[in-house]
Amino acid sequence: MKAWICVPLMAVALVGCAGKKVYRDSCATQLDAAWHELDLAKAEGFAGTVSYSKALSLLTAAKTQQQFEAFEGCTVKSEKARFYIQESRAGR
């Protein structure tokens, strides 16, 4: 009887681990790309300092989430940061 309880619990645990793996790679890729784009934006000099500040704070929060293995939130914040970096380059 105990085996019938343990098997589904183990399956749920394994599915949860597999989901983290997908976001882990995405988080790392998005975060690296965003930091690179932010460095380029700073080097170019631009008028969109508000968007730059938003991007920087989002990247800081994303890096923190990456450290605590909250990879889905890290991915979302990195993608938003990349949007604000594009806005800052456009001077908005």
UniProtKB/TrEMBL annotation:
Which PROSITE patterns does the record match to this protein?
A: PROKAR_LIPOPROTEIN
From what superkingdom does this record's organism come? Bacteria
Name by which UniProt lists this protein: Lipoprotein
Originating species: Pseudomonas endophytica
